[in-house]
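Researcher: Let's do a round of design. I'm pasting the structure tokens now; please hold your answer until I've finished.
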């Protein structure tokens, strides 16, 4: 089977053998993907010329209805997606639900947001500003949809959620989408887009799909387009530095590598609720989706006096993890997505072990119902760095799998300084029953993180989790994490809008304002 690309309003196959997509448990080839011979530039031009005007002619409410229909179509085919996620990504049913249901739920959120914005075609930021003695001459700020195409280059770990959280925002903004899933796990993205296209939900040109290499995609971007990328910092820098992207001042949003931190407060001793919540969260973040989440906890900071107790408690949870073929109902953690990722995590682990000792993960390992040589497993691995202030790799090398490093800290200032050593992260979490420490932590961590989760006993059951991204909240982070922002409710639409100041007669401005939804509304 070869995955087709949907470009120019038609399904087109690449004209070479393509890249194989495999089952990470059995090594079986599932499909191939290729963009050889496909005119990606023409596909982007079709989106701009045909899809863009059709979407912009609609109101936010009408586009929200389209997004709601996409969510309904995906929900109707939900069972098939779970099977694909198992076969191509090695997901357990729980892990598949995070990706598939997360994507659908995010679409539903933006559909509701469209309904809230109503029959408007622009966004208004505030009311009016008087500019001179002449009261009739004033100004306001308006945001209108860009007139290009949104190009989305997605990561392998979330072929559903990564696709739809980006597409949902762009479509609601009135901007056509060309999405390029990571080839390794493109089977789910392909099937979902095919179901949406077959359902005839979107106008022609509103959604295009490229399965295979990105090839010359950056050459065809214009200053009217938007590029959103999720993946490695190395690839992100190559995209940002592309001569055409630089020359055209293409707007770029990046979500990249992230050495996320979780801090156990100094008040949270053995036996208290926050200690138990912290231990559960670290173990969950290590094993959920086999640690293949950009938001997973990579560095766990704990009071120096508690390092032994925390290590023992997390280790006790990890030894209960059943790692193997997710087709076996006893299995609770699956494989990495392919041999390349397995090798990358092994290499990163070797670097980390130069500065940290292994607590869990070095014992002989045999996956359940799987051949260790054919499959792509890494066992849950908990490390401990005794002197994180003198270390380097634990703050700079990310093992993108079921790996976390425990680190002791001496006082709040030390904990916050160690967290900042990550160079910018998507998420941090703080587990404490001390409101004062929580407040200090948020202000200290804020400059280096895109999101800070604070958990005490009262929200322990209801909190959404360190690694779960909610569409209402900003998703992104500074520095190493890419410097971008995705999601964040209404504010996420800003990336696909041009903000401008409008100056003129107050009565004319009022007429324009009536056609726009208020950003703060």
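Researcher: That's everything. Go ahead.
Model: Designed sequence:
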């Amino acid at each position: 089977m070869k995955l087709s690309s949907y470009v120019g309003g038609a399904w087109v196959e690449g004209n070479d053998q393509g890249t194989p997509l495999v089952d990470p448990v059995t090594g079986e080839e599932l499909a191939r993907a290729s963009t050889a011979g496909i005119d990606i530039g023409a596909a982007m031009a079709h989106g701009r010329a045909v899809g863009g005007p059709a979407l912009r002619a609609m109101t936010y409410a009408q586009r929200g209805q389209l997004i709601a229909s996409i969510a309904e179509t995906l929900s109707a085919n939900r069972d098939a997606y779970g099977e694909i996620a198992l076969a191509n990504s090695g997901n357990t049913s729980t892990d598949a639900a995070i990706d598939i249901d997360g994507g659908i739920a995010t679409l539903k959120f933006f559909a509701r947001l469209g309904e809230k914005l109503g029959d408007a075609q622009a966004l208004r930021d505030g009311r009016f500003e008087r500019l001179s003695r002449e009261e009739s001459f004033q100004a306001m700020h308006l945001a209108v949809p860009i007139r290009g195409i949104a190009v989305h280059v997605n990561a392998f770990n979330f072929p559903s959620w990564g696709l739809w959280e980006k597409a949902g925002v762009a479509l609601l903004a009135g901007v056509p989408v060309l999405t390029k899933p990571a080839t390794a796990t493109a089977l789910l993205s392909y099937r979902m887009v095919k179901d949406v296209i077959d359902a005839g939900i979107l106008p022609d040109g509103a959604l295009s799909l490229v399965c295979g290499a990105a090839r010359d995609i950056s050459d065809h971007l214009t200053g009217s387009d938007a590029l959103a990328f999720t993946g490695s910092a190395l690839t992100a820098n190559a995209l940002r530095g592309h001569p055409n992207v630089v020359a055209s001042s293409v707007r770029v949003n990046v979500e990249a590598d992230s050495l996320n931190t979780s801090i156990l407060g100094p008040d949270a001793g053995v036996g208290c609720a926050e200690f138990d919540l912290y231990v559960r969260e670290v173990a969950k973040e290590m094993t959920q989706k086999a640690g293949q989440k950009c938001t997973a906890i990579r560095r766990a900071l704990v009071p120096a006096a508690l390092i032994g107790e925390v290590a023992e408690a997390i280790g006790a949870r990890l030894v209960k993890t059943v790692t193997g073929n997710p087709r076996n109902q006893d299995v609770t953690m699956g494989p990495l997505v392919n041999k390349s990722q397995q090798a990358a995590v092994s290499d990163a682990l070797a670097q980390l072990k130069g500065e940290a000792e292994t607590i869990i993960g070095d014992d002989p390992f045999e996956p359940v119902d799987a051949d260790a040589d054919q499959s792509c497993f890494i066992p849950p691995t908990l490390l401990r760095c005794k002197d994180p202030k003198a270390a380097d790799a634990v703050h700079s090398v990310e093992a993108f799998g079921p790996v976390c490093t425990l680190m002791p800290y001496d006082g709040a200032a030390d904990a916050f300084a160690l967290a900042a050593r990550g160079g910018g992260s998507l998420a941090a979490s703080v587990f404490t029953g001390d409101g004062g420490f929580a407040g200090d932590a948020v202000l200290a961590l804020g400059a280096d993180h895109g999101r800070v989760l604070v958990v005490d006993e009262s929200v322990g059951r209801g909190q959404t989790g360190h690694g779960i991204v909610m569409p209402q909240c900003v998703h992104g982070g500074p520095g190493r994490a890419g410097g971008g922002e995705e999601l964040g409710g209404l504010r996420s639409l800003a990336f696909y809008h041009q903000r401008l100041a409008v100056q003129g007669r107050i009565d004319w401005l009022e007429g324009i304002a009536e056609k726009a939804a208020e950003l703060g509304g």
